[in-house]
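Why show two proteins at once? Because comparison is the fastest way to build intuition. When a single record is shown, students tend to memorize it. When two are placed side by side, the eye starts asking what differs. So, the first record is below.
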Amino acid sequence: MKAPVTHEVTPREGFLPIKTNAFDRGFIGVVLGIFLHLLWMRFLEQAIPLWVCTILAVAIGIYIIKRG
């Protein structure tokens, strides 16, 4: 007779609502960066250069990869 299988439940540590690995978080960061650039070009590029958005997108991507 087999013993019942038990699963250890560990609390999720990141802020993303799904279980992810580093590749998933990197992909989310890239998609978010593209989205930020499109919004930036539509609304803010007249006043603030696009390289500011690039720096912001890279910083957010690094944060998502490390903490997500």
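Second record. Ask yourself what differs from the first in the token line.
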Amino acid sequence: MTRYYTTAEVAERYRTAPSTVRYWRHIGYGPKGVKVGRRVLYAEAELDRFDAEMARQQAEQGMRWAA
């Protein structure tokens, strides 16, 4: 079964403020959330996808600096 996280839990995972997570959602950055009633929830698989994307981007930037 898929686990869903609240905005506060996502903020804790990324060591940032909940307002930052809401801003990311507003500008189309970060993990994609789904609206359930009045709440926005984030699937664990989506958080994992975002983590992998961030790791890939950091690896690319590291390769650019090494070249």
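One difference worth noting in the second protein: Residues 4-66 form a domain with the Multidrug-efflux Transporter Regulator; Chain: A; Domain 2 fold (CATH 1.10.1660).
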